[in-house]
Specification:
binds zinc ion; 13 strands; three-stranded antiparallel β-sheet; alpha/beta; 33% helix; globular; 12 helices; eight-stranded parallel β-sheet; binds (4S)-2,6-dioxohexahydropyrimidine-4-carboxylic acid
Length: 344
């Protein structure tokens, strides 16, 4: 039987929600990953260091004792985030950075940034104090086609932010286009990107051909095949600017399978296996460890994990549903087969 041992991976973009579901969602990640960047788009959003530390405590209470897991908290950037809060974030080792959601771009983003161009003082303070800026890179203007929203964000805002604040560390989250991959490749070394499993394994045909598939719907939305191919090349390129961030984003089944379904793929139940599937299909399994377990830590200036996990080549089926907080959730890739599985 083929097997592959790699350093324990980290997930640099993760939603674990809160309340009743938290206790069942956190272990899906902590069973494999050592660290995860926790997204702050709760209701209300996690805008302060003190709120993030309280949320962190609730997450830690959900980690099974046999798992070793460290949540790295992202704070929710608003139009009124103060320089004092940025300083407090810089001083706290549990806080990894600020997440910029353009207001209205995605789930629970209403309190996000309404005027990116007015955020220069915050970006300056973040650059000065070494606080990374994590970005949901999509414009929200209704006249911009949803498939163009990432590229327009890059051209309208991101080029400018990176040029104006050369000391600022920027992570363009869950990139979906060739334009984003090219932008990150050509930018200076403090600009990186996370890539989700769904954007590597699928394109928009997998969302729309033969019927709408709500469990493949996330934001930024899947793009055409040529964009998928550009992301695939970025992921296997060996460039340390591209690393693992699942954007696992659970929504209860009835909120996905409805007339106006929520955005988000719940990939945590099979996260590293989905990436292994992709690297294996690309005949690039030798590139998995750097992408999953090294480049993200190095990008953030954190130590690389010392323990390992072992993947075994043994086909298995992702379950049709999993339960969290007593309710059904349909995982990404539900009912489909994966070739690799973590050995417990
Ligand atoms: O598909 C998404 N779901 N994209 C996001 O940016 C947010 C996430 C969520 O929180 O559900
Ligand atoms: Zn996300």
């Amino acid at each position: 039987m083929q097997q592959l041992t790699i350093l324990r991976p980290d997930d640099w973009h993760l939603h674990v929600r809160d309340g009743a579901v938290l206790a069942d969602i956190v272990p899906e990640t902590s069973k494999v990953f050592h660290r995860a960047v926790i997204m702050p788009n709760l209701v209300p959003p996690v805008t302060t260091v003190s709120a993030a530390l309280e949320y962190r405590q609730r997450i830690m209470a959900a980690v099974p004792p046999q798992h070793s897991f460290q949540p790295l908290m992202a704070l929710y950037l608003t139009q009124t985030t103060s320089v004092d809060e940025i300083r407090a974030a810089a001083a706290n080792p549990h806080v990894i950075g600020f997440k910029l959601y353009p207001a209205g771009a995605t789930t629970n983003s209403a309190a996000g940034v309404t005027a990116v161009n007015d955020m220069a003082p915050a970006f300056e303070a973040m650059a000065e104090h070494g606080v990374p800026l994590l970005i949901h890179g999509e414009v929200t203007e209704s006249e911009i086609d949803i498939f163009d929203r990432e590229k327009v964000f890059i051209d309208r805002y991101l080029r400018h932010i990176v040029a104006q604040h050369p000391q600022l560390t920027v992570i363009l989250e869950h990139i979906t286009t060739a334009d984003a991959a090219q932008f990150v490749n050509e930018a200076h070394a403090r600009v990186g990107a996370t890539i989700t499993p769904q954007h590597l394994l699928m394109n928009r045909n997998d969302l729309l051909v033969g019927g709408i598939r709500p469990h493949n719907f996330c934001l930024p939305v899947l793009k055409r095949r040529t964009h998928q191919e550009a992301l695939q090349q970025a992921a296997i390129s060996g460039s340390p600017k591209f690393f693992l961030g699942t954007d696992s984003a659970p929504h209860v089944q009835h909120k996905k399978e409805t007339a106006c379904g929520c955005a988000g793929c719940y990939s945590a139940p099979a996260a590293i296996e989905l990436y292994a599937e992709f690297f294996s299909r690309m005949d690039a399994l030798d590139k998995l460890e750097n992408f999953a377990s090294r480049f993200g830590a190095e990008f953030y200036g954190l130590p690389v994990n010392e323990t390992t996990i072992t993947l075994v080549q043994t086909p298995w089926q992702v379950p049709a549903t999993v339960t969290a907080g007593g309710e059904p959730f349909v995982p990404y890739w539900a009912g489909e087969t994966l070739q690799w599985r973590v050995r417990n």
